[in-house]
């Protein structure tokens, strides 16, 4: 009988970037339009500021993720190149090193030596990358994947408060937008927690709290500068 288990480690690469992008898009754009709206700006001025924030934020997220994850990828590639060179120049020491790793994990020395021999015969670099360096196809850095996920999810999160601005009556723009954004943040926090296998309540509380703080601060700043103007 085939044994099946649900693991979420394969989602690490895109999930972090996706959750960060959507959360940042929603909070930053909502805070921006709330701050502009609190300064007594017109609906069209609020929309212009929000669209500009969406475009700038999506590009910034993509660039930041690409640079950050590329640095991680460069480090991984350098480690693999070093390991490849060591395997070519001193395979005996690399075999002993791999066997010792298995021994440290509880494998009997004789069996560990056999396992190391068989693993290196099939894929020496892969065995050392996985067991010595802790690398695998699941966890290795993917810069383009992270960049696209960040940009797309930022835009997806950022467009929601803009839709709310278009639909809400002017008299209820600030309270209505705040309520809608908090509901959306709660849904996002719950979805992210469920996808990652974490407690949903904690995820919802964390996201909505900081979203509320961000909107409250920017609304205060907008109202202050609007009064000064």
SSE topology sketch:
Elements: H1 12-38, H2 43-89, H3 91-104, H4 109-131, H5 143-167, H6 173-196, H7 200-228
Describe the structure.
With 229 residues, the protein is mostly helical. It contains 7 helices and no strands. Helix 1 runs parallel beside helix 7. The longest helix is centred in the N-terminal third of the chain and has 47 residues. The chain is elongated. The N and C termini lie far apart (73 Å). About 3% of the residues have low confidence.
What would you say about this model in short?
The chain is mainly alpha-helical and 229 residues long. Helices cover 83% and strands 0% of the residues. Helix 1 (12-38) runs parallel beside helix 5, helix 2 (43-89) crosses helix 3 and helix 2 packs antiparallel against helix 5 (143-167).
The level of helicity is: over 70%
Count helical runs: 7
Query: What's the overall geometry?
Result: elongated
Indicate the structural class. mainly alpha
Number of beta strands: 0
- C-alpha termini separation: 73 Å
Using the CA coordinates, give the radius of gyration.
25 Å
Q: Tell me the count of domains.
A: 1
Largest sheet geometry? none
* Order of secondary-structure elements: HHHHHHH
Tell me the strand percentage band.
Answer: under 5%
Residue runs with pLDDT of under 50 for 5 or more positions: 5-10
Mean pLDDT value: 79
């Amino acid at each position: 009988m085939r044994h099946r288990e649900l693991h979420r480690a394969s989602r690490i690469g895109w999930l972090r970037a996706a959750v960060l992008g959507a959360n940042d898009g929603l909070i930053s754009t909502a805070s921006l339009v709330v701050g502009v709206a609190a300064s007594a700006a017109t609906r069209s001025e609020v929309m212009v500021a929000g669209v500009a924030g969406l475009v700038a934020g999506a590009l910034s997220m993509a660039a930041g993720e690409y640079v950050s994850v590329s640095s991680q990828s460069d480090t991984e590639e350098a480690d693999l190149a070093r390991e490849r060179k060591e395997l070519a120049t001193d395979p005996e020491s690399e075999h002993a090193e791999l066997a010792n790793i298995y021994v440290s994990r509880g494998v009997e020395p004789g069996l560990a030596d056999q396992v190391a021999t068989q693993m290196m015969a099939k894929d020496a670099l892969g065995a050392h990358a996985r067991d010595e360096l802790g690398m695998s196809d699941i966890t290795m850095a993917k810069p383009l994947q992270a960049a696209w996920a960040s940009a797309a999810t930022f835009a997806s999160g950022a467009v929601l408060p803009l839709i709310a601005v278009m639909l809400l009556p002017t008299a209820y723009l600030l309270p209505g937008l705040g309520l809608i954004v908090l509901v959306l943040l709660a849904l996002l926090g719950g979805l992210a927690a469920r996808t990652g296998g974490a407690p949903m309540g904690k995820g919802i509380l964390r996201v909505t709290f900081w979203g509320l703080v961000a909107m409250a601060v920017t609304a205060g700043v907008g109202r202050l500068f609007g009064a000064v103007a």
